[in-house]
Design brief:
Blueprint (H helix, E strand, L loop, with lengths): L3 H21 L2 H10 L8 H17 L8 H23 L3 H28 L3 H21 L2 H10 L7 H20 L3 H65 L1
Helix pairs in contact: 1-4, 1-8, 3-4, 3-5, 3-6, 6-9, 7-9, 8-9
């Protein structure tokens, strides 16, 4: 008979895979940013929030805090590296106030995690107490990571367009939340259950918005293309008229 620990480990491995997909899901977004040389209206908030979440979960999974949590460390350590790469790319193609804001948030996050680690490891002397303190913070920031797209959801409702809310990211969030909620429920871990359960709810809300505004998004994109084509056609006509006028003037001068 398969033990609960074996099942939990297997789901944790699957959770690592789904979380990796989640971390890699913004790649099309950043390819577009790189190709256009601009961050356009994309928000850095989800990536900055995810970085903080990963750093806190790596701290939670340390043997000195919550032993036997290697699967938590592996995926969140990987996530840290990936999110840092995204943020670096975002900084490279942003400027002014946006870039300064991201840099300040990044510095604040690193300082905060370092301070928490130093205080907890120094002042809390048991695994249970360390796990409780950092686990509560992980719940708060984990919920913040999943709730970060709420700012994008607000923009979707205002503009009636899901152009800047990638579908793949929402789907990856849903699958990841389901896997880690199941992982936490097999050998109950409240600190993993809460943020991932909420993550499932937020992901479902995003998918509902996508279904509602998908059609209007296509209409907006088509209208933008038609407008661009009309502008290009107008420029061609104007250039043609200017060339005709120049040719007539040259002919008159020749006579």
């Amino acid at each position: 008979m398969i033990s609960p620990d074996t099942i939990r480990t297997a789901i944790g491995v699957v959770g690592n895979g789904t979380a990796l997909v989640l971390f890699l899901s913004p790649l099309p977004t950043f390819y577009r940013i790189w190709k256009k040389g601009s961050v356009e209206q994309y928000s850095p908030v989800p990536y900055v929030a995810t970085l903080l979440n990963c750093m806190m979960w790596v701290l939670y999974g340390l043997p000195a805090v919550h032993p036997h949590s290697m699967l938590v460390i592996t995926i969140n350590g990987t996530g840290m590296a990936i999110e840092l790469a995204y943020i670096a790319l975002f900084l490279a193609f942003s400027a002014g106030a946006v870039r300064r804001r991201v840099l300040l948030l990044l510095a604040a996050e690193v300082a905060f995690v370092a301070a928490v680690a130093a205080l907890v490891l120094t002042l809390a002397h048991t695994h249970d107490r360390r796990s409780m303190i950092i686990g509560i913070l992980c719940v708060l920031f984990g919920t913040g990571m999943y709730a970060a797209p709420l700012s994008v959801m607000k923009m979707v409702i205002q503009t009636k367009s899901v152009e800047y809310m990638p579908l793949f990211l929402s789907l990856a969030s849903l699958v990841n939340g389901i896997c880690w909620t199941a992982y936490a429920l097999i050998r109950f871990d409240l600190y993993i259950t809460i943020p991932n359960g909420l993550g499932v709810m937020f992901a479902v809300a995003q998918l509902v918005l996508y279904a509602i505004y998908y059609k209007s998004t296509q209409q907006i994109i088509e209208a933008r293309k038609r407008k661009a084509d009309q502008v290009a056609m107008t420029e061609v006509v104007v250039d043609s008229k200017n060339n005709t006028s120049s040719g007539a003037g040259a002919a008159a001068n020749g006579r």
